[in-house]
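ARCHIVE RECORD
Type: protein–small molecule complex
Small molecule: zinc ion
Source of inputs: curated submission
Record status: active
Notes field left blank by submitter.
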Amino acid sequence: MAEEAAATGPRPVVSYLKIPDDGDPYLEGHKCKGCGAIFLAARPTCSSCGKDGLVEAVKLSNQGELYVYSIVHRSFPGIQVPYVSSIVDLEGGGTIKGNLVNIDPDPEKIKMGMPVEVIYEIAPTKDAEGNEYLTYYFQPRS
Ligand SMILES: [Zn+2]
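STRUCTURE (tokenized, with ligand):
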């Protein structure tokens, strides 16, 4: 499957989703070696401690905990609702927004702090040129 993906070349839907030629996709963060703060976007200076030149790219964990969520009932035309928009704290650092899937959009079933994992899938829509995109979701950890 990895060879297929590399051959047909889905593109990452966001800059911090990395698709290595040989290996599984992952989310990339930028970690300050000075204070340990993690950011999604690359930056030369740490926004937390202000030190220069200590921020390095790191692979983020695919495991995390649900920090907060919102059940979305209205969206743009063509977007299927309801869906669960969520923010997840990843193990080892990094806080990421994404949709929580494979769970009923029901507050009775979704618990703050519940263990979740990152999954990677081809996005349901292509761009105007017909390019496929790889996106990520969260799902409850079994
Ligand atoms: Zn720092």
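CURATOR ANNOTATION: The CA atoms of residues 10 and 43 lie 26 Å apart.
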